[in-house]
């Protein structure tokens, strides 16, 4: 790891640079800012001229510095002139809205006050997906504020692809408007009103998106879970929000198998009977023939539900809600307890989508985006979000490895995708399979590959450009989360891509790295570049949650203040900043933000702190031919005076776990990192616990090996896998093949 101070710091390999930055929307936005405010912001990022420490310099100095007229000027402008920046974002997005605002935000309030933005503005997410603003058309006869520019009736909005590419269905913007309008009429007929919750347990399908948009159309609040989640996990989420309606697929296809969901549907309905608002479930037909749901209580078919709408009447008016009012409920992973129900505002989601999708990513009406996701992951929002800008979304439903690991690559080429959104796990499997996407298909239209969900290893950065994809493609390693429905670490079309980490902060988000050794509730202190610490957001931005559903305000506090759960989750760690719980380091030269792991999973043997991602990187780089996956956690039981690091290896079929391998692993970690990084224990494991989104889960295992008994969360795809780890709480008693090696 690089040291701080004035010592020489090695610069990672540069992999990509935009050869035409002036063509990007971010550059044009910067020039508009220059013209409007008489500034001289420029597009480069010559970090080699910056002497550390520089984070505070970037974020806290004045608007213009003669030596630093670079990209960070735009970011600094966004931080030091918050209202101007976000007002410019709002108007550049050209949303359909009504009302006016006199103040963007109260800049005197800290982030833990959760200040409101753009009070007086009312808008509707679904209206802005289905239509474009007519403000620039100057049509005297227009009274709605909307038109179909870039979203014409015959233009394809969604291409739905079933697992393996076996079935393809195109839906135009005109067809989508008709489908969603009819569904919105049916919801109104069934009494769905502003503020009601509508939940989908469904595939990444046109129908799921239609329910999402119809829910927003009538001013209700949308929430979703994927069909592969267990009944317990679905109910842990859904019961919290007391929904009016549940929509659920009657069947699913995954990994080549068709699964009948009627039994799960009946169990979910039974669990929802305790909800006072619950009126029933609508079954969504997923295959040619609908399943008979007569045995499911409180159930009706999609066709029956839609028939409730008056065919001869027009759709209802869009319900435009306050910028700060809720539209979407997402959920934390809940790996150690009940998931938090995180409520996001319609306005916060929309302005952030413009900033990230348009400025950072460059998405627009000519974009074709293939984002691999389930409906239970925040990336589902990105999946639908391309429609805001008149692009085409490819909805892929099923395993990304059926019939083999090349399926998403072939679909991207076949449909002319300009963006491919994947995870490090996917890239690892593609590389392991020996695939070379750039030699397999024509990827000339592909502009960007975004990668998120876990840490992307350095070797996969290099594989991407050396072996995998064409050199013109922008690899965007991004990181943020469900909590903010957006990014802390983002891609950037103006700066180079180097090996490791994200390119830098998301515009307008005051990212800083704080000393992780400080106690909870302390006044945070920023560390020098090159030193690891906890990622925080030090000032408000629009897309933090409105509140947590079911949260309670502390006695004596304003009803507008964050509730007790909200405060404990994000604001209790340091005073007046958002602590995201990630353990990170900022490179002193490139400015890359590298995510080393979760702060609550930081490894700390003998006071040496490092992230599990550093260990995973070595295993992945050196032992991919023998080790399928790994899990690294710290063990500290009540009787322990120090923490011990435990590394668990999941072997590939036919590969042998033995003393020679353990010795080799320890030597590799010592050579690549340091002797202080070497785990005290290395064991074989038959299974690694993951969420349904395939994220490996460390904290429950850490708690188990430290002597605690936990209740598995419904979010785990394989909760039974945890049982294996209880034996390691008494590690000294283990003998035979499981002994310390």
Summarize the structure in words.
This protein is an alpha/beta fold and 741 residues long. Among the domains are: 1-117 and 348-547 and 570-596, ANL, N-terminal domain (Rossmann fold); 603-738, GMP Synthetase, Chain A, domain 3 (2-Layer Sandwich). It is 27% helix and 20% strand. It has 20 helices and 34 strands. The strands form nine sheets. Strands 14-13-10-8-9-16-17-29 form an eight-stranded mixed sheet, sandwiched between helices. Helix 8 packs parallel to helix 9 (262-272) and helix 18 packs across helix 19. The longest helix has 17 residues, at 173-189.
Helices, strands, pairings?
Layout lengths: L13 E3 L8 H13 L17 H6 L10 H10 L1 H12 L3 E3 L21 E3 L1 H6 L1 E2 L12 E2 L8 E7 L5 E5 H17 L7 E5 L4 H12 L3 E5 L5 H11 L3 E5 L1 E4 L2 E4 L1 H11 L8 E4 L14 E3 H5 L14 E2 L3 E6 L9 E5 H15 L7 E4 L7 H7 L6 E6 L9 H8 L4 E4 L1 H9 L4 H4 L7 E4 L6 H11 L5 E4 L1 E3 L4 E5 L6 E2 L5 E2 L5 E4 L18 E5 L9 E2 L15 H7 L7 E9 L6 E6 L13 H12 L3 E9 L8 E8 L7 H14 L8 E4 L14 H7 L36
Parallel strand pairs: 6-19, 8-9, 8-10, 9-16, 10-13, 13-14, 18-19, 18-20, 20-21, 21-22, 33-34
Antiparallel strand pairs: 1-25, 2-3, 3-15, 4-5, 6-7, 11-12, 16-17, 17-29, 23-24, 24-26, 27-28, 28-30, 30-31, 32-33
């Amino acid at each position: 790891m690089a040291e701080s101070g004035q010592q020489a710091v090695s610069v990672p390999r540069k992999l990509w640079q935009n050869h035409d930055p002036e063509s990007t929307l971010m550059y044009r936005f910067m020039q508009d800012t220059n013209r409007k405010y008489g500034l001289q912001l420029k597009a480069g990022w010559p970090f080699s001229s910056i002497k550390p420490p520089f984070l505070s310099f970037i974020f806290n100095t004045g608007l213009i510095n003669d030596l630093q007229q670079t990209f960070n000027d735009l970011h600094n402008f966004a931080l030091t002139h918050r209202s101007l920046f976000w007002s410019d974002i709002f108007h550049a997005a050209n949303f359909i809205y009504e009302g006016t605002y006199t103040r963007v935000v109260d800049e005197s309030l800290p982030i833990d006050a959760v200040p409101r933005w753009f009070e007086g503005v009312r808008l509707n997410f679904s209206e802005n997906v289905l239509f474009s603003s007519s403000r620039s058309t100057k049509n005297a006869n227009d009274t709605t504020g909307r038109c179909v520019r870039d979203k014409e009736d015959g233009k394809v909005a969604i291409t739905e692809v079933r697992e393996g590419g076996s079935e393809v269905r195109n839906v135009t913007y005109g067809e989508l408007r008709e489908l969603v309008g009819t569904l919105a009429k049916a919801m109104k007929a069934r009494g769905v009103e502003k503020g009601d919750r509508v939940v989908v347990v469904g595939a990444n399908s046109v129908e799921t998106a239609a329910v999402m948009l119809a829910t927003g159309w009538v001013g209700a609040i949308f929430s979703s879970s994927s069909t592969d989640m267990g009944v317990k996990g679905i109910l842990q989420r859904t019961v919290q929000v007391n929904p009016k309606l549940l929509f659920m697929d009657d069947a699913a296809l995954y990994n080549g198998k068709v699964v009948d969901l009627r039994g799960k549907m009946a169990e979910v309905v039974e669990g929802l009977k305790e909800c006072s608002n619950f009126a029933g479930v609508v079954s969504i037909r997923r295959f040619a023939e609908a399943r008979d749901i007569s045995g499911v209580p409180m159930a009706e078919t999609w066709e029956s539900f839609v028939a409730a709408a008056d065919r001869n009447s027009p759709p209802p008016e869009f319900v435009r809600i306050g910028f700060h009012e809720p539209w979407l409920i997402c959920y934390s992973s809940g790996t150690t307890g009940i998931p938090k129900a995180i409520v996001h505002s319609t306005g916060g989601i929309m302005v952030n989508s413009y900033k990230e999708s348009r400025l950072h990513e460059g998405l627009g009406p000519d974009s074709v985006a293939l984002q691999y996701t389930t409906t239970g992951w925040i990336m589902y929002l990105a999946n639908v979000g391309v429609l805001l800008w008149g692009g085409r979304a490819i909805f892929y439903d099923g395993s990304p490895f059926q019939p083999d690991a090349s399926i998403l690559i072939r679909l991207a080429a076949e449909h002319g995708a300009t963006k491919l959104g994947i995870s490090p796990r996917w890239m690892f499997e593609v590389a392991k399979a020996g695939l070379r996407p750039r030699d397999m298909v024509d990827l000339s239209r592909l502009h960007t590959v975004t990668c998120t969900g876990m840490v992307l290893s350095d070797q996969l950065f290099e594989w991407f450009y050396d072996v995998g994809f064409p050199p013109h493609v922008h690899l965007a390693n991004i990181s943020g989360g469900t909590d903010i429905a957006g990014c802390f670490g983002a891609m950037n079309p103006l700066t180079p891509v180097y090996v490791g980490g994200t390119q830098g902060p998301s515009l307008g988000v005051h990212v800083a790295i704080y000393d992780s050794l400080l106690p909870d509730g302390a006044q945070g202190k920023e560390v020098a570049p090159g030193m690891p610490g906890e990622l925080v957001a030090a000032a408000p931005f629009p897309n933090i949650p409105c509140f947590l559903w079911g949260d309670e305000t502390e006695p004596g506090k304003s009803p507008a203040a964050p509730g007790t759960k909200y405060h404990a989750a994000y604001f209790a760690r340091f005073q007046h900043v958002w602590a995201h719980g990630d353990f990170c380091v900022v490179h002193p030269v490139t400015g890359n933000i590298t995510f080393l792991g979760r702060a609550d999973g930081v490894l700390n043997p003998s006071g040496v702190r490092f992230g599990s991602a550093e260990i995973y990187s070595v295993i992945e780089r050196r032992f991919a031919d023998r080790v399928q996956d790994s899990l690294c956690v710290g063990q500290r039981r009540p009787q322990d005076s120090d923490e011990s690091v435990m590394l668990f290896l999941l072997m590939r079929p036919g590969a042998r776990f033995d003393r020679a391998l353990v010795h080799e692993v320890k030597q590799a970690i010592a050579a690549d990192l340091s002797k202080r990084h070497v785990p005290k224990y290395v064991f074989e494991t038959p299974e690694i616990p993951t969420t349904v989104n395939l994220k490996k889960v460390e904290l429950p295992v850490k708690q188990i090996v430290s002597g605690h008994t936990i209740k598995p969360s419904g979010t785990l795809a394989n909760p039974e896998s945890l049982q294996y780890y209880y034996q390691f709480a008494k590690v000294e008693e283990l003998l035979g093949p499981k002994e310390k090696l």
